[in-house]
Amino acid sequence: MVKQLSPVSWEAEEYITKDHNTGWYIGLALVTIALSALAILLQGWTFLILIIISVITVLIFSLRPPRKISYHIDNEGITEGKILHPYTNFRAFGILKEDNHYSAILIPKQRFGLSVKIYFPEGSGEAIVDQLGNHLPMQEVKLDFLDKIVNFLRI
To answer: Which residues constitute the domain of residue 133?
Structure first.
């Protein structure tokens, strides 16, 4: 039986920002030059275009500040901005701490479904965990391979 808990609302950034020093940009430029030279040497023009588009995308996302998103959790599900994620789409949730940032990871029922990651302030953590735990079982979560690569590359 699901208890009626008070809804929880808060605002958080859509992702954790990473500092990019001069070395990061130099490293990106060196990797871009090396991969571009390889593509030209092998006459892989499609690969060269892919490299250029990828670097431009990484630069845009690394320079763009994260948006503030409003979150709301109630008995219907989790509302992220204007998107409602009903509890029926998920089989479990877990809490993850990265540096000084907390996030709830919602694990999808579908085998290849996308998980939902929502950041929250530490002060709201207990109410958020109570509300999620009222509808979904909690399980241990870890950073997946792609998240580890993103953290390593600081993007």
So the answer is: 8-15+66-153
